[in-house]
Write a structure and sequence with these properties.
single chain, alpha/beta, Glutaredoxin, 4-stranded mixed beta sheet, two-stranded parallel ribbon, 8 helices, 8 strands, globular
């Protein structure tokens, strides 16, 4: 009888004092919004500072198992600001970017030197024009293999581009569309996205970090 009571007491203790498993994943905190740089464009600690030599940037990206991504922005672009204020504060988006892409920021109106694939050196503004970039933000993706762009330059060197601001979940799936190679089989992102197959769902985040 005593053994039975002890067993019952142990069972009750396990029921009442056992840790309760969380019912759902705890939302992540929003990342901080970083200040603008000397060009008046928001910066990010994960954006790579390079000499903006396209071939060198591609080779560095390839050596890290990533794909080169140039993000074109300009001062006074409210949709660029929105991209930083909203999209780049989601840890899931930033983690995906860091894992799969080597990101370099280009000021569409800037004068810092860029060396194109054919060796020509020009300002960021002229490089943007040569790449047919006239709206911001523009995301320009390059081939994963640097050898694929030999003798090409500007817009002819890219594999895909997205123009303008998109909401976070669409933005995340734009990245997945490139990283997973869907653009090779379905060249129209909107058609691919509408099918809804294999989309990444954006995890909720805490709106406030208090």
């Amino acid at each position: 009888m005593k053994a039975l009571l002890n067993s019952l007491a142990l069972t009750l203790a396990l029921v009442f004092f056992a840790p309760i498993a969380p019912s759902a994943k705890v939302p992540a905190k929003l990342l901080p919004l970083y200040d603008t740089n000397e060009d008046g464009i928001h910066s990010q600690p994960w954006i790579n500072e390079t000499f903006k030599d396209v071939v060198d940037d591609m080779e560095t990206a390839s050596s890290e198992g990533k794909r080169l991504l140039y993000i074109y922005e300009q001062k006074g672009c409210w949709t660029c600001v929105k991209m930083h204020e909203i999209n780049f504060r989601y840890p899931q988006i930033v983690d995906y970017l860091n894992k799969h892409f080597y990101v370099v920021q280009i000021n569409m109106r800037g004068v810092n030197e860029v060396t194109d694939i054919d060796g020509k050196v020009m300002g960021e503004n002229d490089f943007s024009a040569r790449s047919a970039v006239n709206k911001t933000p523009t995301l320009q993706f390059f081939p994963a293999n640097p050898n694929a762009v030999r003798s090409k330059n500007g817009i002819r060197a890219e594999v895909y581009r997205f123009i303008g601001y998109q909401k976070p979940e669409i933005f995340l799936n734009q990245l997945a569309y490139i990283q997973r190679g869907h653009f090779k089989r379905q060249p129209n992102f909107i058609n691919w996205y509408k099918k809804g197959a294999g989309l990444i769902r954006l995890e909720p985040v805490l709106e406030k970090n208090d």
